[in-house]
Design brief:
RNA_pol_sigma_r2, 2 domains, WH-like_DNA-bd_sf, mainly alpha, Rna Polymerase Sigma Factor, Chain: A, RNA_pol_sigma-E_actinobac, transcription regulation, Arc Repressor Mutant, subunit A, DNA binding, about 180 residues
Length: about 180
């Protein structure tokens, strides 16, 4: 029993930050991401004795994480937002990398849940189409379709952002020109 406890502790320590990054990309909110990871890890710990650790627990945890995210999106409470979040716009950051990450997070927020999950798993986690299909519990064709639609939407949003910047007279570096 003590060996299982040590294995679980080592696994949680080794995978927590990676799972938190994935969860944040899925849901776009640090607090919700922490809740998703906590729930996924709790479900994994309950199932620990029957898991085949030779095949790896990572795929199991990723699938749990995505399933928890998708089921949370289906619940009405997911859409409830504090009023301040709808009104406040964050201050523009002077650092381009921070601004790009913020834009990507917002663009991902606009994708439907399954498209977002497919894009994050395929392109952030660098999973194969088959591995993504396994995590999402769908066919490879569905993963291709979800990824394609998600990327098309992200590209359109990028084009719209660039056109708006040109229209407003702002260069890529954030400098206004006359």
């Amino acid at each position: 029993m003590r060996t299982d406890d040590d294995e679980v502790t080592a696994f949680v320590r080794a995978s927590h930050s990676r799972l938190l990054r994935v969860a944040f990309l899925l849901c776009g909110d640090v607090d919700h991401a922490e809740d998703l990871v906590q729930t996924a890890l709790a479900k994994t710990i309950v199932a620990w004795p029957r898991l085949d650790r030779a095949e790896g627990v990572d795929a199991y945890v990723q699938r749990i994480l995505v399933n928890v995210y998708l089921s949370a999106r289906r619940r009405r409470s997911w859409w409830e937002r504090p009023f301040a979040h709808m009104v406040e716009e964050p201050a523009r950051d002077a650092y381009a990398a921070v601004e790009q990450r913020d834009w990507l997070r917002r663009a991902l927020d606009r994708l439907p849940a399954r498209q977002r999950a497919a894009v994050v798993l395929r392109f952030h986690q660098d999973l194969s189409e088959q591995a993504t299909a396994d995590v999402l519990g769908c066919s490879v064709g569905t993963v291709k379709s979800l990824s394609s639609r998600g990327l098309r939407t992200l590209r359109q949003q990028a084009d719209d952002k660039e056109a708006a910047s040109r229209r407003d007279g702002i260069t890529e570096e954030g400098v206004r020109y006359a």
